[in-house]
Amino acid sequence: MARRRKARGRDVSGIILLDKPKGVSSNEALQQVKRIFHAQKAGHTGSLDPLASGLLPICFGEATKFSNYVLTADKSYATECQLGVTTATGDQEGDVLETKPVPVLNEQTITEVLESFLGESMQIPPMYSALKQNGQPLYKLAREGIEVEREPRQIWISSITLKSIDGDKLSFDVSCSKGTYIRTLAEDIGEKLGCGGHVTELRRFDLGVFHINESVTLEKLHALRDEKAFAEMDEYIQSIETALTDLPSVSLTDDSAFYIKQGQAVQVPKSPVDGLVTLYDSKKQFMGMGEIQDDGKVKPSRLLKS
Asked: Which residues are marked as active site?
């Protein structure tokens, strides 16, 4: 019988809020952080383009079970767009497709255009994206000069605020749902303004309950790693349940906790009537996530290993 290979690295669990720098892919940033912490298991929650900087939560160990919940959270970005120039990728890395003169624009006109994107709408994902068609990432097809039809996707923009207008440079903040492509939004804004546009700067500063002010840079982590200051590094690891603080919590008795661990749904008095919940045992220890069924019982969704 084959012997199981012993996992390499430290068995750490929790969430690191990384301030990803420009010029580094999300996967490269993930691998660096995993090596720095000498972690057995790690994954990130939602990619940022190499062009983009900002908040990239990285999950260690058991926290990876809950990354999908973080992935679905709303996000906020600070965006700079150059008007008058349309590129193949929607950002400054792509070939220029078209240039147009930028009309004289005032704050009221721009604000009205920005606010026209508020609420629910359908957005066609860009070819230069990680979405797959027949198992092939769209960006690979785009690099081969192949363009395929993409299904529009429903998105939601909850706020969009003009920050500044300086000649052909437009800066705005936007808060939006999962699946919103800011490059496509910038292109659509430029089109409505009659001149086209593309993203030149993109920085994510919010993701769900997390904010950029809580983050740490790769530079700082590398410095601590060089000093072999694991204790100080580990102070940046947030507990798993911090990602779920916007969910209502349910306290379980010892009996209920036992059955939940067996994968069974349980009746919990005064629990919410629907949706996801966090689960805590009688000692107020976090157990994981549950979901309210139609019959009112709480069923386990994602649990920490016992």
From this structure: 49
Strand pairing of 14-20 and 216-217? parallel
- Residue pair 280/290 in contact (Cβ under 8 Å)? The answer is no
Instruction: Quote the CA–CA distance of 117 and 136 in Å, as a whole number.
Output: 31
pTM, two decimals, is: 0.90
Span 22-64, pLDDT tens digits: 999 999 999 999 999 999 999 888 788 888 999 999 999 999 9
Q: Which residues contact 260 (CB under 8 A, 6 or more apart)?
A: 252, 266, 279, 287, 290, 298, 300, 303
pLDDT in tens, 84-109: 999 999 999 889 999 999 999 999 99
Domain 75-207 architecture: 2-Layer Sandwich (3.30)
Which of 3.30.70.360, 2.30.130.10, 3.40.50.720, 3.30.10.20 is the CATH number of 247-303? 2.30.130.10
